[in-house]
Design brief:
The complex is a heterodimer of chains A (282) and B (293).
Chain A: H1 6-33, H2 38-42, H3 54-63, H4 74-105, H5 111-120, H6 130-139, H7 146-150, H8 157-169, H9 172-180, H10 185-196, H11 198-213, H12 217-222, H13 231-238, H14 248-268, H15 270-280
Helix pairs in contact in A: 1-14, 3-14, 4-8, 4-11, 11-14, 11-15, 13-14, 14-15
Chain B: H1 12-38, E1 41-43, E2 50-52, H2 56-62, H3 65-96, H4 103-111, H5 118-128, H6 135-142, H7 153-181, H8 185-193, H9 198-227, H10 229-236, H11 248-257, H12 262-286
Antiparallel strand pairs in B: 1-2
The chains are: A mainly alpha (282), B mainly alpha (293).
């Protein structure tokens, strides 16, 4: 046995707690700042203990926004982020699972070229085609719309590969059996394959939801109207104004609110999250 | 590998791939093609006429010292982010791999930053290390450091690297832990019986067995540093002061914002495309991506 003697174990615990402290410290500071007065923070006098403005700050952040002229309630930004994240996650899963189904369970001309067309999009992240994509979305009149936010990001080589891989492991007997029961391709997909894919879909959903919620560059380009901002964009606009005017408690409350849904998903659905992360990297 | 049991249908498979194919063609290939075509064209100042100029945009791009610096900077950032984040994550993973009480709790407390969006990471770190109001800046100044990342380019770069590495710790930790757990205990026990002390066991047994994971993570971290640092940079420094935190992706974005040279912007996109293709190629060719969890 490789036994750890007491002293080494002690050191391991200490190192892990230091790691956790380093990881948590910036977020702790954000939470603390969101409960304090702006004047105190702006003077560099911020305390490291919670202040008394928690309810007031979060109320203003969620329902009113900053005091600036282009104020926008963060609650509305969160709604935009949620819609976008759900559209991206559900959209990617939906169109990927049906294309994987076609590629695995049918033989048709151009099957492999189509598969490769989807696969190669791995090498075309939005960052390498920023402005031409923007132009197409503009030409299609999709700026400042949910469709414009989500549609261009909805193709997924990773998800398609994952479902393809999974379908390959599904025993052929299942298809034979449902065929004997008189089921056609759509019936088989709906009644047999989809229920079998549940765990894969859930794991993928967790990862894609986080990915969608955290989108930044794309929404930054195509949203101009304040009421279409996602929370990630909103937070950047809050610190645009000259430093002296930045309302730090509100900025930090927004940061906390922006972290809340995805962090919650990671912690509560940890098993699915880990599975999804490892699966999508294969 | 192909399925033996399949369905017969002429139209159904096309209907099933149609949605994804449409998205891919309209929003991926068409813009990518536009970028490639655009990179060979030169538009006059009023956008009235375009001429085909072969590789002139590329020649101009690569003879621009600013672009060359952006390339070097991007590679330096990637390297610094990858090395610092990987080594810290490896240390934590090795500790969490020991049979300790409360290991599951440790894991939970270490993986959640994965979910924090890059722009939020930027906001958190600039707030802590803001020259006038940051809570950590006081201590830095107390140490006699003239801390002002909004004016000092090197400090700004250090801040970006620190913040970007911080976010990536959880991802690296998770994959390192998975890699460590897949190392057979018997191998380590054999080394222990042979009298190898823990440190020696780590460097001669664990580390070499972990090398596929390390290489895989190295590639992932470089890709991350290339692309996902955009949000961090944009909320913290906007590429400044001067150009000291402008990476290749940030440069495409900010050059494009200024309007200006479409051909150059397109050429920059194409260069990035080539880099992604190379990185993805490496990932698929050399990395045996078998991480068991």
């Amino acid at each position: 046995m490789v036994e750890e003697e007491g002293f080494r174990r002690y050191v391991a615990h200490i190192i892990l707690w230091i790691g956790i402290a380093i990881v948590a410290f910036p977020v702790y500071i954000a939470i603390i700042a969101s409960t304090q007065e702006n004047a105190l923070i702006a003077n560099g006098q911020m305390s490291l203990l919670p202040g008394g403005h928690f309810l007031q700050t979060y109320y203003q952040t969620i329902f009113v926004g900053t005091s600036g002229s282009t104020r926008e309630p963060v609650g509305n930004m969160m709604l935009n982020s949620l819609v976008m994240a759900l559209m991206i996650a559900v959209g990617k899963i939906a169109i990927s699972i049906i294309s994987a189904y076609a590629i695995v369970y049918f033989r048709f001309p151009f099957r492999m070229p189509i598969f490769w067309l989807i696969f190669i999009t791995l090498m075309l992240p939005v960052e390498v085609r920023i402005y031409p994509t923007y132009k197409i979305v503009a030409d299609l009149h999709m700026l400042d719309s949910y469709a414009g936010l989500a549609l261009p990001l909805i193709a997924s080589a990773t998800a398609t590969l994952l479902f393809r891989q999974f379908f390959m492991t599904v025993p052929d007997e299942l298809l034979e059996a449902s065929r004997i029961d008189g089921a056609g391709p759509l019936r088989f997909f709906w009644d047999t394959l989809l229920p079998l894919s549940r765990t894969n879909m859930a794991a993928l959903f967790v990862i894609l939801f986080i990915l969608g919620w955290n989108q930044y560059l794309w929404p930054l380009l195509i949203t101009t109207r304040d009421d279409m901002q996602t929370i990630q964009i909103g937070i950047r606009k809050m610190i645009t104004t000259t430093d002296a005017l930045t309302e730090w408690p509100i900025v930090m409350a927004t940061a906390v609110l922006a972290m809340l849904p995805p962090v919650f998903v990671v912690i509560v659905m940890q098993k699915l999250f880990v599975r999804g992360l490892v699966e999508t990297e294969k | 590998m192909q399925k033996q049991a399949i369905f017969q249908s002429k139209l159904l498979p096309y209907a099933l791939v149609a949605p994804q194919l449409a998205i891919v063609l309209i929003f991926f290939y068409w813009p990518a093609l536009q970028a490639v075509i655009q990179s060979f064209l030169l538009q006059d100042a009023f956008g009235l006429s375009t001429t085909f100029v072969w590789f002139e945009n590329y020649v101009e791009l690569f003879s621009d010292p600013a672009y060359f610096e952006a390339i070097l900077r991007t590679f330096f950032f990637s390297f610094a982010i990858a090395v610092s984040s990987l080594s810290f994550a490896l240390l934590l993973a090795v500790m969490a791999d020991k049979p300790l009480r409360g290991v599951m709790l440790y894991r939970t407390l270490l993986i959640w930053p994965y979910a924090v969006a890059p722009p939020v990471v930027g906001v958190l770190w600039i707030f802590m290390l803001h020259p006038s109001l940051g809570v950590l800046s006081r201590y830095l100044r107390g140490l006699g450091i003239d801390w002002n990342p909004l004016l000092d380019g090197d400090q700004a770069a250090a801040l970006i690297i620190l913040a970007a590495a911080w976010k990536q710790i959880s991802y690296n930790f998770l994959f390192f832990l998975a890699g460590l757990q897949s190392i057979p205990r018997s191998v380590l026990e054999a080394a222990a019986i042979d009298g190898a002390r823990p440190m020696r066991r780590f460097w001669t047994v664990t580390f070499p067995l972990l090398s596929p994971t390390i290489f895989f993570l190295l590639v992932v971290n470089i890709v991350y540093a290339f692309f996902d640092t955009f949000g961090i940079i944009d909320t913290m420094t906007r590429g400044g002061p001067g150009k000291s935190t402008e990476t290749l992706v940030y440069k495409v974005y900010s050059d494009g914002l200024l309007g200006g040279n479409l051909g150059s912007s397109a050429a920059q996109s194409v260069v990035l495309m080539v880099m992604v293709i190379v990185l993805t190629g490496i990932q698929f060719r050399f990395v045996e991506r078998k991480v068991t969890y």
